[in-house]
Specification:
Strand content: 15-25%
Largest sheet: 7 strands, parallel
Helix content: 40-55%
Structural class: alpha/beta
Amino acid sequence: MTFDGKVALITGASRGIGRAIAVEMCRQGSDIALVGRDRAALDETAAACANGRAGATAQVLTADVAEQSAVEGAVSAALERFGRLDFAIANAGVSIDSLLVRLRPDVIDQTLSVNLKSAFYLCAAVARPMMKQRAGAIVLVSSIVGLCGNAGQAAYAASKAGLLALGKSVAKELGSRNIRVNAVAPGLIETAMTEKMPGAAKEALIQQTALGRAGTPQDVAGVVAFLCSDAAAYVTGQTVVVDGGVLM
C-alpha cells in the first residue's frame, strides 16, 4: 500500500484508534488532517505522525463533530490546505453505558450526535470534492455491538448499527463516481475508553475471543488503511469485523 500524494481526514484523531489510524495512514505516505476537540492531544497525534514518517504533513483542526457546521468547516480547511481529499475516516465516538430503564434522553442525544450524526455530516461534506475527483474512500468506525448488541449499551449499539446502514446506503449513492464506502467493526480494543471497564468484564470478553487477547488500535488501523488502498479497489458497502474471533 502506498498513499503518496494522497490526503486523509480523520475525526476523533486525538487518541486511541483514531491516532493509530492517523499514524498508519501517514506511514503509508498520506498527508493527514486531524479533527477533534482536544488541541493538545491532536498535537500529540501530529507529533506521532511526524515520527512515523519524516516530512509528514499533519494539519490539526479543532472541531466538535456533533455540529454540522464544524464538520463542514474542517473539511473546507483541509481542502484549502491540501487541495484535495482522498480518504475520510469517521472515527469520533463516545460511549456512556446505561441500562435502558435508566437511559436519559440527553445521553441518547449525545451518543447519536457524536457517533452517528457526525458521520452523516462527514460523508455529505466530503462527497462533493470526491465526486469532482471521481475517486475517494470513506471508512466508518463502528463496533461489533452494532452487529450483536450489548446489555447496558443500547444507545451506543444503536448508533454503531446506524453507521453500518449509512455506509451501505452511501456506497450505493456514490459508487458510480468511484467512491467506496466501508465500515470496520472492532471488538475489545485496548484504549482509554476500555480502560474504564471492570477487570472481570474485560477478562470475560477476552475469554470469548478466539485469539485470546484484546486488540490494539494498530490492529484496527491496518484494516482501515487496507480499505482505503487500491488493494481494496473492488470492495464497497462492506463491514470488516476486527474482533479477534468473537463473532463467527
